[in-house]
Amino acid sequence: MSKQELPVIGQSATGPECCPGLLTAPLDEEQAVVLARVFKALGDPVRLRLLSMIASRAGGEVCVCDLTPAFDLSQPTISHHLKLLREAGLIASERRGTWVYYRLLPEMTDTLAGILTRPSGEPLPGAAGITA
Known about the structure:
The chain is of the alpha+beta class. Strand 4 and strand 5 (99-104) form a beta hairpin. Helix 2 packs across helix 4. The chain has five helices and five strands. A three-stranded antiparallel sheet has the order 3-5-4. A two-stranded antiparallel sheet has the order 1-2.
């Protein structure tokens, strides 16, 4: 199990700081590396489903024993996917006896939402006359 600390975009050691959206300022290299890791973790259908199952669970956490049967994959494969989500800063885990329980880390999903959200009413830069 990795003990690597990943930085949380938009938070410093002294507390939260404003995190610019993609439309307000270019990402620096460190932000791009962290975001790429998160998006890579979310880029797999199994991991996206796992994250959704964890995030939507009543009580805010779910046992790995409840996640594994939902997939036609081996337990080690599910554990690998969960490890990648954990390393990306999207979920946290806690061992209780023989089982591991997972919960969403909303700080990262909130950060992603903030980065990807266009300020209300503002047009895209250079998008005059373009409609979606």
